[in-house]
Amino acid sequence: MERDLYKNTFTEEYVPDYLCPRCNKGLLRLNKDTLKSVETVDSKIYQRNEYSEFQDVQITFNCMFKCINDKCGEIVACTGHAGVDIDYDDFSQPNEYYTYYKPLFFYPNLKLITIPEDTPDNIKKLLNKSFELFFTSPSAAANLVRVSIEEILTNQGVEKINNLHRRIEKLPKKHESLKTKFFALKWLGNAGSHSGDSITDDDAMDAYELVEDLLLKIYSSKDDELNMLANKINTLKGPKK
Ligand SMILES: [Zn+2]
Questions:
Q1: pTM (two decimals)
Q2: Looking at the chain, which terminus has fewer C-beta neighbours within 10 angstroms, N or C?
Q3: What does the pLDDT read at residue 217?
Q4: Ligand 1 centroid vs 64 CA: distance in angstroms?
Q5: Are 115 and 129 in contact (CB under 8 A)?
């Protein structure tokens, strides 16, 4: 996954290429007319102090993004906090002030990893909930990935017992090679539920990359389909009729 995309702030001039969560094809573009920001009351009070700096200003914003795919055109709402900083020119001299925006919530949620179509609905739902919380709480996001792997195990026929470690050990033989990744996700999820904010956005993104690979290996039929196609061509010793 393109990590910087979800970690960085944006400005009116430079908005990251978020992918549309509806069509997964078009990029989202900021509708500048919808970008509204206000300074918080506490920030206004603080700014009355003579020692206050403009970088301390606290701003709340909301805006709408629109998908550029003309067959889609989905609208995605975004809210978060903003701040002001100085841009420096090529000679390291202060050039101009600019406002940066840090998204904390998107609705509908962005799709942070690819979930194969054949993934069971309850697992899709848990992961989408995780993507929704990612920007405000990486711990809660990682914890939901852990809950989703419990569901993957259930879906793969592993008995429901109150010990995730033992459940992973009981994975069917055909998934033997995936156990290491399941265990890693267990540790990340544990940290997410027991120690508050010790999970960083990078840790949560580690969890996403690991679970993305598990989903691909367990629920994507692409690999099987290509094997069947190759077998067919080999049997015919040429192109399919
Ligand atoms: Zn779209």
A1: 0.86
A2: C
A3: 92
A4: 14
A5: no
